Amino acid sequence: MVSQRAFEELIGTVSNLSMIDLSHTIEEGMPVYPTHPQYFHMRWHTGDPATLFQLLISEHAGTHLDVPLHFYSDLSDRRRLGLDEAPLEPCIGRAVKLDFRSLLPDAELGADDIRRWEGSNFRLEKNDAAVFCFGWDRKWATLPAGKPFVTSWPGISRNAAEYLAERGIRLAGTDCLGIDGSSTSDLGSHFVFLEHGIYIVENLRSLEKVPTIFLLITLPLKIRDGGGSPIRAVGLIPKAS
Q1: Is 89 helix (H, G, I), strand (E, B) or coil?
Q2: b vs e for 70-86, b when ≥16 Cβ sit within 10 Å of the residue's Cβ?
Q3: In CATH, what is the architecture of 19-30+59-238?
């Protein structure tokens, strides 16, 4: 039970943190996964005095979050979990940035790569968000300039995902188009993470602006039978003194 005084101190602490926008702008022509629909932003003309637009957008466009229904959609599957029933707790909490900006395109991190990172830094804790900084967001641009963003990208191998699931993380994030690298043949990380109820966030940006430890907010829309949702990802960090 949190006391009223402790709660007020928490509000004061959060109010004094700097907010880092970790989301790409949603706009027509932005990069999307090769098999996913493009985004369209259409003026709605109805005679209403207000300015209105209709959005035609994939659940997995822009900076977005995946929940288990994305890969486990059968009504009889115990792993099935849509956005309208998914707990919000995994969307807010401590995040750990794993910096792998030196990784080559098409490369996939293995469990040993993450263990070595932990050995040089510190071990991930249960309920952490593991956020992978590949520096891939520098390739993001509207098409056709953004084509390199969707042509190839680094990612997380199946055995790395299995290791992170064993470590008890709540969320895995990346600044690439997908948590699985473009060279994968089985989308193993998606299956492993979502089977264990671990949410996935893709297409993050500006991870170089956050320290290794930060507070991450990744709240999705509440979509009935939704497997994913665009989000406004935000990193909270101490203000510079």
Answers
A1: helix
A2: bbbeeeeeeebbbbeeb
A3: 3-Layer(bba) Sandwich (3.50)
